TrEMBL record:
Keyword Membrane: no
UniProt main location, coarse: cytoplasm
GO biological process: nuclear-transcribed mRNA catabolic process, nonsense-mediated decay
Keywords carried by this UniProt record: ATP-binding, Cytoplasm, Helicase, Hydrolase, Metal-binding, Nucleotide-binding, Zinc, Zinc-finger
Descriptive protein name: Upf1 domain-containing protein
Domain Upf1: 1-51
Entry-linked CDD domains: 1B_UPF1-like
UniProt organism field: Gossypium trilobum
PROSITE patterns xref list: UPF1_CH_RICH
Gene3D superfamilies attached to this UniProt entry: 2.40.30.230, P-loop containing nucleotide triphosphate hydrolases (3.40.50.300)
GO cellular component: cytoplasm
Amino acid sequence: MNWDLSQWCPLIDDRCFLQWLVKVPSEQEQLRARQISAQQINKVEELWKTNPDASLEDLEKPGIDDEPQSVALKYEDAYQYQNVFAPLIKLEADYDKMMKESQSKDNVTVRWDIGLNKKRVAYFVFPKEDNELRLVPGDELRLRYSGDAAHPAWQAVGHVIKLTAQEEVALELRASQGVPVDVSHGFSVDFVWKSTSFDRMQGAMKTFAVDETSVSGYIYHHLLGHEVEVQMVRNTLPRRFGAPGLPELNASQAFAVKSVLQKPISLIQGPPGTGKTVTSAAIVYNMAKQGQGQVLVCAPSNVAVDQLAEKISATGLKVEKLDSACGSGCKALCEIKGSCEFSC
Protein backbone atom coordinates (compact mmCIF):
# COMPACT_ATOMS: atom_id res chain seq x y z
CA MET A 1 0.00 0.00 0.00
CA ASN A 2 1.28 3.44 -0.93
CA TRP A 3 1.36 5.73 2.14
CA ASP A 4 2.46 8.81 0.17
CA LEU A 5 0.23 11.57 1.60
CA SER A 6 0.11 13.39 -1.70
CA GLN A 7 -1.73 10.39 -3.15
CA TRP A 8 -4.33 10.44 -0.36
CA CYS A 9 -5.06 14.18 -0.27
CA PRO A 10 -7.53 14.12 -3.22
CA LEU A 11 -9.56 11.44 -1.43
CA ILE A 12 -9.62 13.51 1.76
CA ASP A 13 -10.51 16.72 -0.07
CA ASP A 14 -13.37 14.98 -1.86
CA ARG A 15 -14.61 13.52 1.45
CA CYS A 16 -14.46 9.99 0.13
CA PHE A 17 -14.03 8.61 3.65
CA LEU A 18 -16.94 10.59 5.09
CA GLN A 19 -19.59 7.90 4.68
CA TRP A 20 -17.30 5.45 6.52
CA LEU A 21 -17.11 7.73 9.53
CA VAL A 22 -20.55 9.29 9.86
CA LYS A 23 -23.94 9.02 8.24
CA VAL A 24 -24.16 11.56 5.43
CA PRO A 25 -27.39 13.58 5.86
CA SER A 26 -29.88 13.56 3.04
CA GLU A 27 -30.77 16.72 1.10
CA GLN A 28 -34.04 16.97 3.06
CA GLU A 29 -32.18 16.71 6.37
CA GLN A 30 -29.68 19.32 5.25
CA LEU A 31 -32.54 21.74 4.43
CA ARG A 32 -33.87 21.36 7.99
CA ALA A 33 -30.41 21.76 9.55
CA ARG A 34 -29.45 24.87 11.50
CA GLN A 35 -26.07 26.55 11.51
CA ILE A 36 -24.24 26.44 14.85
CA SER A 37 -21.03 28.13 15.88
CA ALA A 38 -17.96 26.59 17.44
CA GLN A 39 -18.80 28.50 20.64
CA GLN A 40 -22.24 26.83 20.81
CA ILE A 41 -20.64 23.43 20.27
CA ASN A 42 -18.25 24.08 23.16
CA LYS A 43 -21.15 25.09 25.43
CA VAL A 44 -23.14 21.96 24.58
CA GLU A 45 -20.08 19.82 25.30
CA GLU A 46 -19.81 21.50 28.71
CA LEU A 47 -23.48 20.69 29.39
CA TRP A 48 -22.89 17.06 28.43
CA LYS A 49 -20.50 16.72 31.39
CA THR A 50 -23.44 17.08 33.78
CA ASN A 51 -26.34 16.18 31.47
CA PRO A 52 -25.55 13.67 28.69
CA ASP A 53 -28.99 14.33 27.13
CA ALA A 54 -28.45 18.09 26.75
CA SER A 55 -29.18 19.62 23.34
CA LEU A 56 -28.92 22.96 21.57
CA GLU A 57 -32.37 23.87 22.91
CA ASP A 58 -30.91 23.83 26.43
CA LEU A 59 -28.67 26.74 25.49
CA GLU A 60 -31.79 28.90 25.15
CA LYS A 61 -32.76 28.40 28.79
CA PRO A 62 -32.29 31.49 31.03
CA GLY A 63 -28.82 31.74 32.49
CA ILE A 64 -27.28 28.94 30.39
CA ASP A 65 -25.78 31.05 27.64
CA ASP A 66 -25.13 34.18 29.68
CA GLU A 67 -21.57 35.39 29.37
CA PRO A 68 -20.02 37.01 32.47
CA GLN A 69 -18.83 40.57 32.18
CA SER A 70 -15.22 41.06 31.15
CA VAL A 71 -12.75 41.93 33.87
CA ALA A 72 -11.60 45.54 33.60
CA LEU A 73 -8.47 47.29 34.80
CA LYS A 74 -10.45 50.16 36.33
CA TYR A 75 -13.85 50.31 38.06
CA GLU A 76 -16.11 53.24 38.89
CA ASP A 77 -16.98 51.98 42.37
CA ALA A 78 -17.13 48.86 44.53
CA TYR A 79 -20.63 47.96 43.23
CA GLN A 80 -19.32 47.62 39.69
CA TYR A 81 -16.38 45.61 41.01
CA GLN A 82 -18.74 43.21 42.80
CA ASN A 83 -21.04 42.89 39.75
CA VAL A 84 -18.07 41.73 37.67
CA PHE A 85 -16.33 39.40 40.10
CA ALA A 86 -19.26 37.82 41.98
CA PRO A 87 -20.49 35.83 38.91
CA LEU A 88 -16.92 34.69 38.23
CA ILE A 89 -16.58 33.38 41.79
CA LYS A 90 -19.86 31.47 41.38
CA LEU A 91 -18.64 29.94 38.12
CA GLU A 92 -15.41 28.88 39.83
CA ALA A 93 -17.37 27.39 42.74
CA ASP A 94 -19.70 25.47 40.40
CA TYR A 95 -16.74 24.11 38.44
CA ASP A 96 -14.84 23.13 41.59
CA LYS A 97 -17.91 21.33 42.94
CA MET A 98 -18.48 19.49 39.66
CA MET A 99 -14.85 18.41 39.45
CA LYS A 100 -14.69 17.12 43.02
CA GLU A 101 -18.04 15.37 43.01
CA SER A 102 -17.12 13.57 39.79
CA GLN A 103 -14.06 11.94 41.40
CA SER A 104 -15.88 9.15 43.24
CA LYS A 105 -14.02 5.82 43.29
CA ASP A 106 -15.50 2.37 43.81
CA ASN A 107 -13.97 -1.00 44.73
CA VAL A 108 -11.35 0.62 46.95
CA THR A 109 -9.22 -1.58 49.23
CA VAL A 110 -8.68 -0.22 52.75
CA ARG A 111 -6.28 -1.11 55.54
CA TRP A 112 -7.08 0.12 59.04
CA ASP A 113 -5.00 1.69 61.79
CA ILE A 114 -5.44 3.79 64.93
CA GLY A 115 -3.74 7.18 65.26
CA LEU A 116 -2.02 8.56 68.34
CA ASN A 117 -5.23 10.46 69.13
CA LYS A 118 -7.12 7.12 69.21
CA LYS A 119 -9.02 7.94 66.02
CA ARG A 120 -9.47 5.43 63.21
CA VAL A 121 -7.27 5.98 60.16
CA ALA A 122 -8.05 4.37 56.80
CA TYR A 123 -5.21 3.87 54.30
CA PHE A 124 -6.04 3.34 50.63
CA VAL A 125 -4.80 4.17 47.15
CA PHE A 126 -6.80 6.90 45.41
CA PRO A 127 -6.09 6.63 41.65
CA LYS A 128 -4.99 9.87 40.05
CA GLU A 129 -7.07 11.24 37.19
CA ASP A 130 -5.69 13.11 34.20
CA ASN A 131 -6.98 16.51 35.29
CA GLU A 132 -5.93 19.47 37.41
CA LEU A 133 -7.61 18.17 40.56
CA ARG A 134 -5.16 16.79 43.10
CA LEU A 135 -5.59 15.44 46.60
CA VAL A 136 -3.87 17.41 49.37
CA PRO A 137 -3.77 17.15 53.18
CA GLY A 138 -6.87 18.73 54.68
CA ASP A 139 -9.26 17.59 51.93
CA GLU A 140 -12.42 15.96 53.24
CA LEU A 141 -13.48 12.57 51.88
CA ARG A 142 -16.43 10.30 52.52
CA LEU A 143 -15.68 6.58 52.90
CA ARG A 144 -18.65 4.28 52.19
CA TYR A 145 -19.42 0.59 52.46
CA SER A 146 -22.63 -0.70 50.89
CA GLY A 147 -22.94 -3.56 53.39
CA ASP A 148 -23.21 -7.32 53.14
CA ALA A 149 -24.81 -10.22 54.98
CA ALA A 150 -22.61 -9.68 58.04
CA HIS A 151 -22.26 -5.89 57.98
CA PRO A 152 -24.81 -3.08 57.65
CA ALA A 153 -24.30 -0.19 55.23
CA TRP A 154 -21.85 2.31 56.69
CA GLN A 155 -20.31 5.67 55.83
CA ALA A 156 -18.11 8.22 57.57
CA VAL A 157 -16.42 11.51 56.76
CA GLY A 158 -12.77 12.23 57.49
CA HIS A 159 -9.93 14.46 56.40
CA VAL A 160 -6.67 13.58 54.67
CA ILE A 161 -3.82 13.80 57.18
CA LYS A 162 -1.01 12.71 54.84
CA LEU A 163 -0.05 11.12 51.54
CA THR A 164 2.51 8.35 52.00
CA ALA A 165 5.54 7.62 49.84
CA GLN A 166 3.65 4.58 48.53
CA GLU A 167 0.95 6.98 47.20
CA GLU A 168 -1.46 5.86 49.91
CA VAL A 169 -3.99 8.29 51.33
CA ALA A 170 -4.26 8.42 55.13
CA LEU A 171 -7.82 9.41 56.05
CA GLU A 172 -8.57 10.19 59.70
CA LEU A 173 -12.26 9.52 60.44
CA ARG A 174 -14.29 11.92 62.56
CA ALA A 175 -16.27 9.14 64.23
CA SER A 176 -14.99 5.70 65.21
CA GLN A 177 -18.32 4.05 66.01
CA GLY A 178 -19.43 1.19 63.80
CA VAL A 179 -16.33 1.20 61.60
CA PRO A 180 -16.13 -2.15 59.71
CA VAL A 181 -12.47 -2.74 60.56
CA ASP A 182 -12.72 -6.43 59.68
CA VAL A 183 -13.58 -5.54 56.07
CA SER A 184 -10.91 -4.41 53.63
CA HIS A 185 -12.51 -4.61 50.16
CA GLY A 186 -15.47 -3.06 48.37
CA PHE A 187 -15.33 0.49 49.74
CA SER A 188 -16.23 3.67 47.85
CA VAL A 189 -14.62 7.09 48.26
CA ASP A 190 -16.24 10.47 47.50
CA PHE A 191 -14.93 14.01 47.72
CA VAL A 192 -16.83 16.20 50.20
CA TRP A 193 -17.18 19.60 48.57
CA LYS A 194 -17.29 22.58 50.91
CA SER A 195 -18.38 26.05 49.84
CA THR A 196 -16.73 27.82 52.79
CA SER A 197 -13.94 29.53 50.82
CA PHE A 198 -16.29 30.70 48.08
CA ASP A 199 -18.90 31.90 50.60
CA ARG A 200 -16.20 33.95 52.31
CA MET A 201 -15.20 35.48 48.97
CA GLN A 202 -18.79 36.45 48.20
CA GLY A 203 -19.26 37.83 51.71
CA ALA A 204 -16.10 39.91 51.43
CA MET A 205 -17.22 41.25 48.03
CA LYS A 206 -20.60 42.29 49.48
CA THR A 207 -18.99 44.01 52.46
CA PHE A 208 -16.55 45.77 50.14
CA ALA A 209 -19.47 47.00 47.98
CA VAL A 210 -21.66 48.38 50.77
CA ASP A 211 -19.02 49.68 53.19
CA GLU A 212 -16.19 51.81 51.87
CA THR A 213 -14.61 51.84 55.32
CA SER A 214 -14.24 48.03 55.37
CA VAL A 215 -10.72 48.54 53.98
CA SER A 216 -8.34 51.47 54.02
CA GLY A 217 -8.75 54.16 51.37
CA TYR A 218 -5.42 53.12 49.88
CA ILE A 219 -6.52 49.48 49.39
CA TYR A 220 -10.02 50.54 48.25
CA HIS A 221 -8.74 52.65 45.37
CA HIS A 222 -5.96 50.19 44.57
CA LEU A 223 -8.49 47.38 44.07
CA LEU A 224 -10.62 49.56 41.81
CA GLY A 225 -7.62 50.40 39.65
CA HIS A 226 -7.62 54.09 40.52
CA GLU A 227 -4.44 56.09 40.48
CA VAL A 228 -3.06 56.36 43.99
CA GLU A 229 0.00 58.06 45.35
CA VAL A 230 2.83 55.61 45.87
CA GLN A 231 3.32 54.95 49.56
CA MET A 232 6.42 53.53 51.17
CA VAL A 233 6.63 52.05 54.65
CA ARG A 234 9.53 53.44 56.62
CA ASN A 235 11.37 50.46 58.04
CA THR A 236 14.97 49.75 58.82
CA LEU A 237 15.82 47.06 56.31
CA PRO A 238 17.96 44.16 57.54
CA ARG A 239 21.28 43.30 55.94
CA ARG A 240 19.93 39.92 54.93
CA PHE A 241 16.32 39.01 54.39
CA GLY A 242 16.46 35.36 55.38
CA ALA A 243 15.64 33.96 58.79
CA PRO A 244 17.37 31.49 61.12
CA GLY A 245 16.13 27.93 60.80
CA LEU A 246 14.95 28.44 57.20
CA PRO A 247 16.63 27.63 53.87
CA GLU A 248 18.65 30.42 52.28
CA LEU A 249 16.49 32.65 50.10
CA ASN A 250 17.20 33.01 46.40
CA ALA A 251 17.25 36.41 44.66
CA SER A 252 13.54 36.53 43.81
CA GLN A 253 12.51 35.42 47.31
CA ALA A 254 14.76 38.01 48.96
CA PHE A 255 13.33 40.70 46.66
CA ALA A 256 9.80 39.66 47.67
CA VAL A 257 10.66 40.02 51.37
CA LYS A 258 12.24 43.44 50.77
CA SER A 259 9.21 44.60 48.78
CA VAL A 260 6.75 43.58 51.51
CA LEU A 261 8.77 45.40 54.17
CA GLN A 262 8.64 48.62 52.12
CA LYS A 263 5.04 48.64 50.80
CA PRO A 264 1.63 48.75 52.53
CA ILE A 265 0.21 45.99 50.31
CA SER A 266 1.94 43.28 48.26
CA LEU A 267 0.95 40.26 46.19
CA ILE A 268 3.32 37.31 45.86
CA GLN A 269 2.43 34.71 43.28
CA GLY A 270 4.23 31.52 42.30
CA PRO A 271 3.56 27.91 41.26
CA PRO A 272 3.95 25.00 43.71
CA GLY A 273 7.49 24.36 44.91
CA THR A 274 8.79 27.91 44.47
CA GLY A 275 9.11 28.54 48.21
CA LYS A 276 6.11 30.72 48.98
CA THR A 277 5.75 29.26 52.50
CA VAL A 278 9.43 29.81 53.32
CA THR A 279 9.25 33.33 51.89
CA SER A 280 6.12 34.06 53.94
CA ALA A 281 7.82 32.80 57.10
CA ALA A 282 10.83 35.03 56.38
CA ILE A 283 8.48 38.01 55.92
CA VAL A 284 6.78 37.35 59.26
CA TYR A 285 10.15 36.96 60.98
CA ASN A 286 11.47 40.27 59.62
CA MET A 287 8.22 42.09 60.42
CA ALA A 288 8.28 40.79 63.99
CA LYS A 289 11.89 41.94 64.38
CA GLN A 290 10.82 45.51 63.48
CA GLY A 291 9.43 45.72 67.04
CA GLN A 292 6.10 47.30 66.01
CA GLY A 293 3.86 44.71 67.67
CA GLN A 294 2.47 41.27 66.96
CA VAL A 295 2.03 39.97 63.42
CA LEU A 296 -1.35 38.47 62.48
CA VAL A 297 -1.22 35.74 59.81
CA CYS A 298 -4.33 34.29 58.18
CA ALA A 299 -4.75 31.35 55.82
CA PRO A 300 -7.74 29.70 54.08
CA SER A 301 -7.40 26.35 55.87
CA ASN A 302 -6.08 24.77 59.06
CA VAL A 303 -3.56 22.77 57.03
CA ALA A 304 -2.12 25.94 55.48
CA VAL A 305 -1.94 27.54 58.94
CA ASP A 306 -0.14 24.53 60.39
CA GLN A 307 2.44 24.44 57.58
CA LEU A 308 3.22 28.14 57.91
CA ALA A 309 3.23 27.98 61.72
CA GLU A 310 5.81 25.20 61.58
CA LYS A 311 8.12 27.29 59.37
CA ILE A 312 7.75 30.41 61.54
CA SER A 313 8.32 28.40 64.69
CA ALA A 314 11.60 27.16 63.23
CA THR A 315 12.88 30.78 63.22
CA GLY A 316 12.58 30.96 67.02
CA LEU A 317 9.52 33.19 67.13
CA LYS A 318 6.75 32.46 69.60
CA VAL A 319 3.74 31.27 67.61
CA GLU A 320 0.20 31.12 68.91
CA LYS A 321 -2.49 29.44 66.84
CA LEU A 322 -6.08 30.63 67.06
CA ASP A 323 -8.85 28.44 65.66
CA SER A 324 -12.44 27.36 66.22
CA ALA A 325 -11.63 23.80 67.25
CA CYS A 326 -14.42 23.73 69.82
CA GLY A 327 -16.93 24.14 67.01
CA SER A 328 -19.49 26.43 68.67
CA GLY A 329 -17.93 29.72 67.66
CA CYS A 330 -15.53 29.99 70.58
CA LYS A 331 -11.79 30.17 70.00
CA ALA A 332 -9.20 27.68 71.10
CA LEU A 333 -5.76 29.16 71.68
CA CYS A 334 -2.77 26.89 71.65
CA GLU A 335 0.86 27.88 71.94
CA ILE A 336 3.16 26.21 69.46
CA LYS A 337 6.47 27.67 70.55
CA GLY A 338 8.34 30.02 72.70
CA SER A 339 5.27 36.92 69.01
CA CYS A 340 3.16 35.85 66.21
CA GLU A 341 -0.52 35.05 66.16
CA PHE A 342 -2.39 32.82 63.72
CA SER A 343 -6.02 32.83 62.72
CA CYS A 344 -7.75 30.14 60.68
